[in-house]
Amino acid sequence: MKRNILAVMAIAMGLILTGCGQKAPKVERLHVDGCHLVNESGQVIAYHGISFGWHNLWPRFYNESAVKHLTEDWGCKIYRAAIGADDHALGDNPGKDHGYMADPELALKSLYAVVDGAIASGAYIIVDWHSHVQHPEEAAEFFRTVATKYKGVPNVIYELYNEPTRDSWESLKTYAEGLIKVIAECDPSHPVILMGCPSWDQAIEKPAADPIKGYDNLMYTVHFYAGTHKQWLRDKCDAAMAAGIPVLISECASCDASGDGRMDLESWQEWSDWADAKGVTMLTWSVGDKNETCSFFTPEGSSEGPWDDSVIKPWGKIVREWIKNN
Fold first, then answer.
1. Which letter does DSSP use for residue 88 in this model?
2. Which of 311, 326, 316 has its CA nearest to residue 48?
3. Between β-strands 156-159 and 124-130, what pairing exists: parallel, antiparallel or unpaired?
4. What angle do CA 258, 289, 249 make, to 5 degrees?
5. Which helix (H) or strand (E) holds 249?
6. CA distance 128 to 111
7. What pLDDT is attached to residue 12?
8. Cα 137 to Cα 238: distance, rounded to the nearest angstrom
9. Predicted pLDDT of residue 20
């Protein structure tokens, strides 16, 4: 009888993870080799991907159907779920929902929907603790919960800290070491982990000079907005990679660093060409409907998709083609 109960539980869990009993497509387990993300055959992977906006600003897009349509219609193979840690984003977005620390139920519900959608679609998903200041205890609780739930699932990648602003690299390194330990204890499958660097993810020279030790499946994130960040930041990335530091662009767009303003498509193309040549994965910002340049959709667009051209903003159309041509 006990064996039968366990079998039923296993089947039920399979249904939850794969959606209506359909077997989820198998994905290769990715790992870091030198400066690059590689597949099981050792081939360098340089994906063009998509970041969802803050979960507490645009929870309506955090659903499995949205992931399904972005995978099937746009061809996206990697996503990022930006789970707002605190209420930072409410400063210029009043009236929106609270972040994880005030409303963990909404945060986890939103996260699980897109993670399960990515798994069902055969895509990768970055679980992003989306914060500009350190919250080490709350971050540890968050990653312990998520890494336990998705233990051994090869689709899932962890991003420890979005865009540190005023933290020294010394303090960030200590923060990262603690969270890496939490994830490694919960998930012995050795998942890929990403860590941000100082100054809004632009001071990549800091970890290059003093990298985190003891975990070899680690990459460092750099963020750029093409209207603001130019060749000088690519030069920093080149120097870091020359020093053996693996780089992944987990957030970028063609406008300026505010997320708004005109698109600098020449600079955007330079960044895209550079990343393709260097074998660097890039994820674009963002799935949202805010009245700003870097949001993909208008408010009239559906939460679940599909989306026709009338509700896709200019940046969304550029990203769609960029992904299809990857």
1. G
2. 326
3. parallel
4. 50
5. strand 247-253
6. 9
7. 40
8. 34
9. 47
Contact 61, 303 (CB under 8 A): yes
Q: Is 310 helix (H, G, I), strand (E, B) or coil?
A: helix
C-alpha 270/C-alpha 186 separation (Å) is 40
Q: Are strands 218-225 and 193-195 parallel, antiparallel or unpaired?
A: parallel
List the structure tokens of 120.
């069902």
Tokens of 206: 């800091």
Catalytic residue among 105, 163, 170, 321: 163
Helices (H), the chain: 2-18, 64-74, 104-121, 136-149, 169-186, 198-201, 205-209, 231-242, 265-278, 314-324
CA 271 to chain centre: 18
Distance of CA 163 to the CA centre of its chain: 12
pLDDT of residue 19: 43
Cut 0.70: pTM above it = yes
Cα–Cα distance measured from residue 83 to residue 108, given in angstroms and rounded to the nearest whole number: 8
At 108, list the tokens. Answer: 């986890």
Instruction: Give the count of beta carbons closer than 10 Å to the beta carbon of residue 37.
Output: 26
Distance from C-alpha of 191 to C-alpha of 185, rounded to nearest angstrom: 11
Strand, coil or helix: what is 241? Answer: helix
Query: Which is catalytic among the residues 251, 266, 270, 300?
Result: 251
Query: Which residues does residue 36 pair with via DSSP β-bridges, in sequence order?
Result: 33
Q: In which residue ranges of the chain is pLDDT below 70? A: 1-22
Catalytic status, residue 185: no
3-class secondary-structure state, position 255: coil
Strand partners for 48: 282
Is 40 a known active-site residue?
no
* Contacting residues for 11 by C-beta, under 8 A, at least 6 apart: none
Whole-angstrom distance, CA of residue 32 vs CA of residue 166: 28
